[in-house]
Amino acid sequence: MPRAVREQQMMDAAVRTFGQLGYRAASMDGIAELAGVSKPLVYLYLNSKEDLFTACIRREAAALIAAVRDGAEPGLPADRQLWAGLTAFFTHTGGNPDAWSVLHRQARTHGEPFAAEVAAMRDEIVAFVTGLIGAAAREAHQQPSFGDRDVAGLARALVGAAESLADWANETPGVSAKEAAATLMNFAWAGLGNLMDGRRWSPAP
After folding, report:
1. CB 18 within 8 Å of CB 53
2. Cα 122 from Cα 144, distance rounded (Å)
3. Continuous H helices in 96-141
4. How do the pLDDT tens digits run along the chain, 205 residues long?
5. What burial class does residue 69 get, using C-beta atoms within 10 Å of its C-beta: 0-12 exposed, 13-18 middle, 19+ buried?
6. Which of 2, 131, 158, 192 is the most exposed place for a label (fewest CB within 10 A)?
7. What torsion do the CA atoms of 174, 178, 181, 187 make, to the nearest 10 degrees?
8. Tens digits of residue pLDDT in 30-78
């Protein structure tokens, strides 16, 4: 079997193990057994447990980013692109729960360098969503009543909400990707529309 194929097989086993057991409880013995190879071969190909976990994070982060970007069809209005991107996000996280656990739970709770890898992925997704929200504002109004700071804040809030909703969707039987995406669009898009129309909430004096 070619080395590249064997490595992916080992990483598949590692993602499943890390996602279900957690980083600390996962063992190289268990990963090797699940992959159907010897432990020395895992070390030969992927070095240490830390290196293997980092490689899993990078692979799964790249796959999630690609899914979101590919899902948001260029040429559509910005709101339709955002809807399509969110649907693709929830489709991917729902279809790959172990990978999502690695990215959203395991990597973030075990310090550097793992958290930095996930932060880089998140920043890329936030930048993508920022572009879509900014485009939506330009499409709706030639001179929107909110600026770059509002757009950036909304994008980060939307991504954070999507991450939490993905956890909920994965833990709640029967929730489809479209249902999760519609929940978030209904929550976020109405608020965005209010901002674009100059309507802002303010606390009572």
Report:
1. yes
2. 26
3. 97-101, 114-140
4. 788 899 999 999 999 999 999 999 999 999 999 999 999 999 998 889 999 999 999 999 999 999 999 998 888 888 888 899 999 999 999 999 999 999 998 888 777 889 899 999 999 999 999 988 888 777 766 655 557 787 888 899 999 999 999 999 999 999 999 999 998 888 877 666 665 666 665 665 5
5. middle
6. 2
7. -80
8. 999 999 999 999 999 888 999 999 999 999 999 999 999 999 888 888 8
In this structure, what token pair is assigned to residue 89? 């996000």
**What are the structural domains of the chain?**
57-196 (1.10.357.10)
Sign of CA dihedral 154, 156, 162, 164: negative
Evaluate whether 124 touches 65 at the Cβ level (below 8 Å). Answer: yes
Distance, CA of 141 to CA of 135 (rounded, Å) = 10
Token pair 């790249």 is found at: 62
For 178-191, the DSSP string reads HHHHHHHHHHHHHH
Q: Is the dihedral of CA 136, 141, 143, 147 positive or negative?
A: negative
The overall longest dimension of the chain from CA atoms, in Å, is 70
Task: Spell out a b/e string for 82-111, using b for 16 or more CB atoms within 10 Å of the CB, else e.
Answer: bbbbbbbbbbbbbebbbbbbbbbebbbeee
Structure tokens at 60: 């799964």
DSSP 8-class letter at 176: -
